[in-house]
Design a protein that fits this description.
- It is a single chain.
- 34% of the residues lie in helices and 22% in strands.
- The chain is built from 14 helices and 21 strands.
- The chain starts with 10 loop residues before the first strand and ends with a helix.
């Protein structure tokens, strides 16, 4: 059935920008926008932070005929792709239902794309200059003898139901460069396997991936990463039963609520769920995932691989320092998730700080919705943007939540004598880990976009497995072949490795490591002010950075566990 409407006075539409407006308080309100499009154009329209079921987006032609529409879905943005069949003037009607909160706002984004659709002939090249590209309105088919090559810098939005079908003897080449990736937006799939459901490859098809970044909206089952409480594990049939179980458990019993074999998956799920973004990087050597907090997963993975946390020890009824701290930290995640899902708070600061972190991540997704092309355009060079402010807020809240739990259970482990049962070298190593964890959260300088902390998006993972402070792969720590410094010079080496990695590998400390920012320039300036370079000895780094900010274990405990 054809639906028509009288076109109202419309505002010229500007794409690739955020339009923020106050929600109406009593009655629904409509806005009209107009834009001229060619048949070779496509739009993706987002409205975020809506609360009323009357809200919707509609697209009309100049005669008032409705061509496309999308309606309100609870706890999700409204997203409408539009592919005009011919050149002309088009009108977008945005209807926003009332919200009783006088301060409530909604955000409208409209991104302009080049459509990718139909069966190609011969060879086709996708470039940054002719993009970005939006998959649709039909499947993109690459038949036998044909190929698509995406060049460095190209961006492809695959959000929606359409697919890229690479048939036998067809070819898809995604040819990014180390400093100029191919970017895929809106994938559904399994980031740990670096797969996305919108790409279907026949057995005899040819594909190649070089330096590709994949941004995921949902997991392989289509579940939003911020749809709570799934996939959080249910440890009790009711919230009341869970609360009673947690309260009654001893510290030792609480450490074993989730068996070691299940902890890594749970920790990974928790931080994926909490992160407002989720990427997969297909690099030449090692593919890896990126989400806010993946350093915690890497640390837990190292604990299991080095047998510091052991399923065999757990099944035998024994527990060491690492089992105790890791198990109770995981139980803190469970408790925080359950309370958050039931809209409850906690009187325990370490749990409440985790709830605060979950709340910030959820609020970001509700306010900003899914990733858009707009978000990829130098997000940390937009003065006063909420995008930047949110991530500046998330990084210190992450470290505060994580470290309060770790320091709390480290202190308990010492009080219970578990630390003393480790050998002397392991004790020194544990102390250095605690000091480094705090140092990463309380740097003596500011990193643009994150504040005075090392962003938890992969650097800690890198330093666990590489560099001067590579963590031991054996447990307990073996006798070293040479003298080992676990004091301030080791932290100086850690910081030196951080800067050297950023500058020498041309990575970036901000947000993800592939979006250009001003961070590198400002960090170079910081070193210049200190009179040192990445080639300076650790003693110089110790003098300029470590000594002015050094804290003892007792001071670190007071920092996190003393509540004013």
């Amino acid at each position: 059935m054809t639906i028509t409407m009288k076109i109202r006075s419309a505002t010229p539409l500007e794409t690739e920008r955020r339009i923020t407006k106050a929600s109406p308080n009593e009655y629904s309100h409509e806005d009209w926008y107009e834009t001229t499009l060619a048949s070779t154009d496509a739009l993706e329209i987002h409205i975020n932070n809506l609360t009323h079921p009357d809200s919707c987006i509609e697209v009309y032609d100049r005669f008032g005929t409705r061509l496309e529409h999308a309606c309100f879905t609870p706890d999700a943005p409204i997203i409408l792709p539009f592919f005009p069949e011919k050149e002309g003037l088009y009108f977008i009607r945005v209807l926003v239902g009332p919200d009783p909160d006088p301060h409530h706002i909604y955000q409208l984004f409209v991104d302009k794309y080049t459509p990718l659709s139909g069966t190609i002939e011969g060879s086709c090249r996708l470039t940054a200059e002719k993009g970005p590209y939006l998959l649709g309105p039909k499947d993109l088919i690459i038949p036998a003898g044909c190929s698509i090559t995406a060049e460095a810098g190209a961006t492809i939005n695959v959000r929606g139901s359409n697919k890229i079908l690479v048939q036998d003897a067809g070819a898809l080449y995604l040819m990014g460069e180390s400093d100029n990736h191919i970017t895929i937006i809106g994938a559904i799939g399994d980031p740990s396997r670096h797969t996305w459901n919108q790409l279907v490859i026949s057995p005899q098809a040819m594909t190649e991936n070089r330096h590709v970044v994949i941004q995921y909206d949902n997991d392989e089952n289509g579940v939003d990463f911020l749809t709570f409480p799934a996939p959080f594990a249910a440890t009790a049939s009711t919230f009341e039963e869970f609360t009673a179980t947690i309260e009654e458990a001893s510290h030792y019993k609480r450490a074993g609520m989730i068996p070691p074999a299940a902890r890594l998956d749970y920790i990974k799920s928790w931080f994926k769920q909490a992160s407002p973004y989720h990427f997969s990087f297909l690099e030449e050597l090692i593919p890896f995932e990126l989400y806010f907090g993946n350093d915690v997963t890497s640390f837990a993975d190292w604990e299991m691989d080095s047998l510091r946390v052991s399923s065999e020890r757990y099944l035998a009824g024994h527990i060491n320092y690492w089992d105790f701290v890791n198990g109770n930290f995981t139980s803190d995640l469970v408790e925080a998730a359950q309370l958050f899902a039931n809209k409850q708070s906690s009187s325990e600061p370490r749990i409440q700080r985790m709830i605060d972190f979950l709340t910030i991540g959820q609020n970001w997704r509700q306010t900003h919705g899914y990733f858009k092309w707009y978000d990829l355009i130098n997000p940390f060079n937009k003065n006063g943007e909420e995008f930047e402010k949110t991530f500046e807020q998330m990084a210190p809240i992450f470290w505060l939540a994580h470290n309060t739990s770790i320091i709390y259970w480290d202190k308990k482990a010492r009080e219970l004598g578990l630390w003393e049962k480790e050998n002397a070298l392991e004790q020194q190593f544990i102390n250095s880990v605690i000091i480094r964890v705090h140092f990463a959260a309380d740097l003596p300088f500011t990193i643009p976009g994150y504040g005075n902390n090392i962003p938890p998006v992969g650097f800690v993972s890198l330093s666990i497995n590489h560099g001067p402070l590579c963590y031991p792969k054996q447990y307990p720590i073996p006798e070293p072949e040479h003298e080992v410094n676990y004091g301030t010079l080791s932290i100086a080496s850690y910081l030196k490795f951080f800067f050297d990695t950023l500058f020498s590998r041309k990575t970036n400390s901000i947000y993800t490591w592939w979006i250009p920012t001003q961070a590198d320039q400002q960090l170079y300036q910081l070193l210049g002010e200190k009179g040192i370079s990445v080639d300076s000895p650790p003693e110089d780094w110790d003098r300029e950075f470590i000594q002015p900010s050094q804290k003892t274990l007792e001071e670190i405990q007071q920092f996190y566990l003393t509540i004013s």
